[in-house]
TrEMBL record:
PANTHER family from the UniProt entry: FLAVOPROTEIN, HOMO-OLIGOMERIC FLAVIN CONTAINING CYS DECARBOXYLASE FAMILY
Domain 4Fe-4S ferredoxin-type: 139-165, 166-195
GO cellular component, one term: phosphopantothenoylcysteine decarboxylase complex
This protein's name: 4Fe-4S ferredoxin-type domain-containing protein
A single MF term (Gene Ontology): FMN binding
Length: 235
């Protein structure tokens, strides 16, 4: 089966998405598409290597990034014309969900969503903002300012392979989430798996509800259900 899996810039449900994508890549041909934000967020949560490994699994697999594209996204037409059996967007940010439900197509992934209907390729979307109210989510590595003693030299800074640490801050654009800093800080000031509570706004939950009404789109609420749903749709 040929699967196009698009990843947007959400940290929430990212771990689950990578896990399911890895499982599907064991016996399917996969094209991964990343939004500009996804490229950064994947790095921040330490999943860039997982993506590279999936691509290397099969010579037909490929990675397409929004950054490589032009403003009119001609590639989205090509991608959605008889080339794939199914298209998946997971995780889907509040931003991309809002754009899809309002028929806005100004990124590679929102263009693929718009074009999938025209090419009659089924589209599964897993939105991250599902229900109004609180959720718990993991944030990328950060330095606990109360624990940081601003050592000179800073062992965590010295251990960082990408020069991302300028105590007491981590440059999130440079950080690759390798967690070497956590092992070297003598004051345990680096936190790499902190969970925080976030509030899902009513407008974002409403947009998710609207997704269910759009033709050609199947809205799923659990990433783990994707393989079962693919079987149900394609038979
Ligand atoms: C570390 C990090 C985690 C993020 N997690 C989420 C998230 O879980 N859900 C969300 O809607 N946006 C999240 N964002 C914000 C999006 O990346 C941002 O809105 C971006 O513009 C989305 O673009 P895209 O929809 O084209 O991928 C996160 C940003 C960062 C830096």
């Amino acid at each position: 089966m040929k699967i196009l899996w698009a990843i947007t810039g959400a940290g929430h449900l990212l771990k689950e998405s990578i896990k399911t994508l890895e499982k599907l890549s064991e016996n399917n041909q996969i094209t991964i598409v990343t939004s500009k934000a996804a490229k950064e967020v994947l790095k921040l949560y330490g999943y860039t290597k997982n993506i590279e490994e999936i691509i290397e699994k099969n010579k037909e697999n490929q990675l397409i990034t929004d950054k490589q594209q032009q403003y009119s996204y001609p590639l989205s037409g090509k991608l959605t014309h008889n080339k794939y059996d199914i298209i998946i967007i997971s995780p889907t940010t509040a931003n991309t969900t809002a754009k899809i439900v309002h028929a806005i197509a100004d990124t590679l992934i929102t263009n693929i969503a718009a074009q999938s209907g025209k090419g009659e390729i089924p589209l599964i979307v897993v939105p991250v903002d599902q229900k109004q109210g609180h959720i718990t989510t993991t944030i990328p590595p950060y330095i606990d300012k109360e624990k940081c003693k601003k050592c000179t030299p800073c062992p965590a800074q010295r251990s960082c392979p990408t020069n991302a640490i300028i105590p007491p801050e981590i440059n999130t654009i440079k950080c690759i989430s390798c967690k070497k800093c956590k092992e070297t800080c003598p004051y345990h000031a680096i936190n790499t798996d902190k969970q925080i509570k976030l509030y899902i706004r009513q407008i974002d939950a409403q947009n998710t509800k609207k997704l269910e009404t759009i033709e050609n789109i199947t809205t799923l609420y659990k990433v783990e259900d994707i393989p079962k749903e693919i079987k149900r749709i394609l038979g």
